[in-house]
Write a structure and sequence with these properties.
63% helix, 22 helices
């Protein structure tokens, strides 16, 4: 008779081998611990990951953000460095027109609102926001000089602290959701909780917020709460456009299951909620609205992409053609994944389809920031709950994480070459690791007997009525 909860030390070869260091796999007659339930264990591990991230970013908190050593110290974050340029030091409201002093904000409405509130709390806790007089006086100080003031830097650190707390809370929510979505395999969520990429990238940007909302939408769908699903997914897409992959995957599986009507209704709720989030931007700053929706597909080629690799070796491509090629590539990825979902011998699990859409999209996208890996992580844990494969994939991501910061610091640039060879190798390693992991998931779809989660009766607890 199978245990109520799958024990990783008996189910996963990697964990089985690692458990030898603490006495071997758990016994078949062992009883569950009265306190350390899977949920509590996962939440404790997520908290540990959050602490490790703060330790990892300690050099920047000690001053590397201001000295320019953030790249070399591997602790860069968009958030504190944007405190002054985004007008937070002066209490500038989201999308407020300040003339030529500050550029209009292009953060999505939910992020802009959270950032504004966090900045107010940071100024208040630091003493600068208690009366408002000090903040008002800053309008007479040049922005470049304002960024060097010690009081402003202290506020930026407090701002980062509040933001980091929000990201840890988002990670805790993700951990709890993954436990709930893993069915009889709740310990699979531990692979998210102590993921190396989570420790490395948790506080670079706001990406964990979008991931928590997207996985929250999947959880709501799994409980057939369609309105909650729509509200969460609509907000997730308002935070970052990538969660639209969840809706696309659900529609494909709904077509296969004959549940198109209910899914389209839920997607309609999501679209309505997304539209509501766009209203503040359209009313306050309509000229920057498209920039809040389309963050990086602007014709430019950023770090980490195959396009950058190609241009570093002499390929020339215009902005307009790049956008066209990326859109066409995204369409091909979507058609390929959806075709696989519709023609597979057994209906794929929802996280598998979402993961393949995200992997394909990130491979062809013109920029790959290190924190984008957080989009993949929760769905990777659900799609392929195998510790060895997850760690091999993350090894490629960590390779790229190290390379991008070192190349930005100038550590890997050869003065006699126009090509940063270590960095180009890291791009290839990352892409190969992602494609390899995606290939394993494709194999699991085509050969369901290879899928670890398929061995359990509720093999797609995330699928709701589609399973």
């Amino acid at each position: 008779m199978r245990p109520a909860v799958v024990a990783p030390s008996r189910d996963d070869p990697f964990v089985t081998a690692a458990s030898q260091a603490v006495g071997g796999p758990i016994g078949r007659h062992a009883r569950p611990h009265p306190f350390w339930t899977p949920l509590r264990l996962v939440l404790a591990l997520v908290t540990l990951a959050g602490v490790l991230n703060l330790v990892h970013t300690a050099p920047c908190q000690a001053g590397a953000w201001w000295s320019g050593a953030a790249y070399a110290d591997l602790c860069y974050s968009d958030v504190p460095l944007g405190y002054v340029p985004r007008g937070h030091a002066e209490g500038v409201a989201p999308y407020e027109d300040t003339g030529s002093r500050y550029a209009r904000a292009t953060e999505p409405a939910p992020v802009a609102a959270l950032a504004f509130a966090s900045a107010w709390v940071a100024r208040t806790l630091s003493g600068g926001g208690s009366t408002g007089a000090e903040v008002s006086a800053r309008a007479d100080v040049p922005v470049a000089e304002l960024a060097t003031q010690e009081a402003v830097r202290e506020e930026a650190l407090a701002f980062y602290g509040g933001y980091a707390l929000l990201m840890v809370v988002s990670a805790l929510v993700l951990g709890a959701l993954l436990v709930g979505l893993s069915g009889r395999r709740p310990f699979d969520a531990a692979a998210f909780a102590i993921a190396p990429v989570l420790v490395a990238s948790a506080t670079i940007g706001w990406d964990l917020l979008g991931a928590a909302l997207a996985v929250g939408a999947v959880y709501a769908w799994s409980r057939l709460r369609l309105v909650a699903y729509g509200a969460l997914l609509g907000t997730a897409v308002a935070v970052a456009s990538w969660p639209v992959a969840v809706a696309v995957a659900m529609v494909a599986l709904a077509v296969r299951a004959g549940r198109t009507r209910s899914v389209l209704g839920a997607v309609g709720v999501a679209a309505s909620v997304w539209a509501l989030w766009q209203l503040p931007v359209l009313l306050l700053a309509p000229q920057v609205w498209w920039g809040t929706v389309n963050h990086t597909l602007d014709g430019g080629i950023g770090y980490g992409s195959l396009w950058r690799l190609a241009t570093s070796y002499g390929l020339s491509i215009s902005s307009g053609r790049l956008v066209t090629l990326v859109v066409v590539a995204l369409a091909l990825v979507a058609f390929a994944v959806l075709g696989l979902a519709l023609r597979a011998p057994v209906a794929p699990r929802l996280p598998q389809v979402v993961l393949l859409l995200l992997v394909g999209g990130l491979v062809v996208w013109p920029v790959y920031s290190p924190q984008y890996v957080l989009w993949l992580l929760p769905f990777a844990v659900l799609a392929r709950p195998c510790w060895r494969d997850l760690l091999w994939w993350q090894a490629g991501e960590i390779c790229y994480f190290l390379a991008v910061w070192w190349t930005l610091s100038g550590a890997t640039v050869d003065a006699g070459s126009v090509v940063d060879k270590p960095y180009t190798v890291a791009i290839v390693v990352r892409v190969v690791a992602e494609l390899w992991f995606g290939g394993v998931v494709v194999r699991d779809i085509l050969r369901p007997e290879q899928d670890p989660a398929r061995a359990e009766p509720a093999c797609d607890s995330a699928g709701g009525g589609l399973r």
